[in-house]
């Protein structure tokens, strides 16, 4: 898609997408790739000044650097 539209950002440049990819790497035990991808996500979030996303990615990155995956509970679909 990017080849068809030069200069158009791909979804792989979005910090949220990179953060999700990093989480998937960590869940598979690939912590060095998770940390590397999270670093890219962090740089992308910092360049767009997305403070909340920056903090989230920093927290995830801390986990990957000590060999832990980022596991967040799913929201409940329906209240009790």
Task: Summarize the structure in words.
The chain is an all-alpha fold and 80 residues long. The chain has a domain at 13-65. The protein contains 3 helices and no strands. It has helices at residues 15-27, 31-47, 51-65. It is globular, with a radius of gyration of 14 Å. The model is unreliable at 1-5 (pLDDT under 50).
Summary tags:
globular, 80 residues, 56% helix, disordered N terminus, 3 helices, mainly alpha
Topology, pairings included?
Layout: H1 15-27, H2 31-47, H3 51-65
Helix pairs in contact: 1-2, 1-3, 2-3
Compact description:
With 80 residues, the protein is mainly alpha-helical. The chain has helices at residues 15-27, 31-47, 51-65. The chain is globular and about 40 Å long.
Cα(first) to Cα(last) distance is 44 Å
Give the H and E element order.
Answer: HHH
- The total count of helices amounts to 3
Work out the strand percent. Answer: under 5%
Radius of gyration: 14 Å
Number of strand segments: 0
Give the rounded overall mean pLDDT: 86
In the predicted model, the low-confidence regions spanning at least 5 consecutive residues are 1-5
Sheet bearing the most strands, described?
none
The percent range for helix content is 55-70%
| Global geometry | globular
- The secondary-structure class comes to mainly alpha
């Amino acid at each position: 898609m990017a080849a068809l539209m030069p200069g158009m950002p791909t979804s792989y440049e979005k910090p949220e997408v990179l953060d999700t990819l990093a989480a998937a790497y960590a869940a598979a035990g690939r912590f060095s790739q998770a940390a590397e991808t999270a670093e890219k996500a962090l740089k992308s979030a910092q360049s767009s000044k997305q403070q909340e996303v920056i903090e989230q990615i920093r927290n995830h990155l801390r986990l990957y650097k000590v060999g832990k995956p980022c596991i967040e509970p799913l929201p409940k679909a329906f209240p009790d």
